[in-house]
Design goal:
Structural class: alpha+beta
Distance between the termini: 27 Å
Number of helices: 11
Strand content: 15-25%
Helix content: 40-55%
Order of helices and strands: HHHHEEEEHEHEHEEEHHHH
Shape: elongated
Largest sheet: 9 strands, mixed
Length: 288
C-alpha cells in the first residue's frame, strides 16, 4: 500500500468517527494491523511539522483573539507509562495543550504534555513562537486562558511579548483579601496589582452574590472583561467538535494517539472553512 492509501484510510475512519478495524470490515481492504504497522514509525516531530505546514496556509484576519487550554483523554492502560499524567478527578490521562482561534474557530496547534514537559510558560512560549512564525502579519488582540495558566512566569512571558491577555484570578489568600475589601467598598473595581515582576490589573465584578475577579493587561472595564472572557468557551466547543473527527484506536502507542488528535483538528478546520464558503450555515451533523 502507498502512503496515500494509508492517509485515506485514516481520514475515512476519522470522518466517520470509527475504528480502523471497523472500516476494514466495511471495505474489506487495509486491516488495522497493516495501517498501524505503517503509522507506528511516525515521530512526534513529524506530526508537529504536519500541523505547521497545513495551518500556515490558512488566511487569518489582521487581528485575532486566541485561546489556549489543556485537554485530557482518559487512559485505561498502564498507569506507570512515562507519558501518563494523573488528573484532578483521580483518573489517568494523556494531556495536550491546544491553541485555537476564537473567531473564526480554528485549530492552530497542539502539543502532547508529559510529566517532564508540563511547564506552563515553556508550553505557552512554544505555541506563541510557532504562531508568530506561521502568521507574521497577524496581531494577537487577546489571549484567553483559564486558571490552569495562572502563573507569574506566564504573565511575565506575555508582558515581554506585549500580548494582551485575560484570565480569571486564582482565589489565593491575597486575592481573597482584596475581594473582602472590594465588598466593603474599600476598593474600586479596577486595581493595579503586582504579580511577580509584572504590573497587571485586577478587575472586580459582582454578579448576584458572587464576586468575579479577572487579571489582565488590557484597559477594559470589568463588564467588558466578563463579556470577552465568555468567548474563551469557544475552545471548549472546539474540543467537543474535534472529538467527532477522531478515529478510534486502542493502541498504547501515544504517537498514534497524537496522530488521531492532530488529524481530528485538521478535519475540524476543513469543516469550519467549508462552512464559510457556502451561502448558509450547515448543521454539523448534516455535513458529517
Amino acid at each position: 500500500y502507498k502512503s496515500l492509501d494509508i492517509a485515506y484510510r485514516l481520514i475515512q475512519s476519522a470522518v466517520h468517527h470509527q475504528s480502523i478495524e471497523a472500516m476494514f470490515k466495511l471495505t474489506k481492504y487495509l486491516s488495522a494491523d497493516q495501517v498501524l504497522r505503517h503509522v507506528h514509525g511516525v515521530e512526534e516531530d513529524e506530526l508537529r511539522s504536519v500541523i505547521m505546514q497545513t495551518t500556515k496556509k490558512i488566511t487569518l484576519p489582521k487581528k485575532i483573539a486566541l485561546a489556549i487550554d489543556y485537554t485530557e483523554k482518559v487512559y485505561y492502560g498502564d498507569r506507570n507509562h512515562p507519558d501518563v499524567i494523573g488528573s484532578k478527578n483521580g483518573k489517568y490521562v494523556r494531556r495536550y495543550t491546544e491553541l485555537s482561534s476564537i473567531s473564526p474557530p480554528l485549530f492552530l496547534d497542539a502539543m502532547p504534555v508529559t510529566p517532564f514537559t508540563n511547564v506552563k510558560e515553556d508550553l505557552l512560549k512554544q505555541h506563541l513562537d510557532s504562531f508568530s512564525k506561521r502568521f507574521p502579519k497577524t496581531i494577537v488582540s487577546m489571549l484567553c486562558m483559564d486558571k490552569g495558566f495562572y502563573a507569574k512566569k506566564v504573565v511575565q512571558l506575555l508582558a515581554a511579548k506585549k500580548i494582551p491577555f485575560l484570565m480569571p484570578a486564582v482565589r489565593n489568600k491575597a486575592v481573597k483579601k482584596l475581594i473582602v475589601q472590594y465588598e466593603q467598598g474599600l476598593l474600586k473595581n479596577r486595581v493595579r496589582y503586582r504579580f511577580g515582576t509584572s504590573e497587571v490589573t485586577l478587575l472586580f465584578l459582582k454578579i448576584e452574590d458572587e464576586v468575579l475577579v479577572y487579571m489582565t493587561n488590557m484597559h477594559i472595564t470589568p463588564l467588558r472583561a466578563h463579556y470577552l472572557y465568555s468567548k474563551r468557551w469557544q475552545i471548549e466547543t472546539n474540543f467537543r467538535e474535534q472529538n467527532k473527527f477522531a478515529f478510534l484506536t486502542q493502541t498504547t502507542d501515544f504517537t498514534v494517539r497524537y496522530l488521531a488528535y492532530v488529524l481530528a483538528g485538521l478535519l475540524f478546520n476543513a469543516w469550519q472553512l467549508t462552512r464559510r464558503l457556502v451561502p448558509y450555515t450547515l448543521e454539523s451533523y448534516l455535513f458529517k
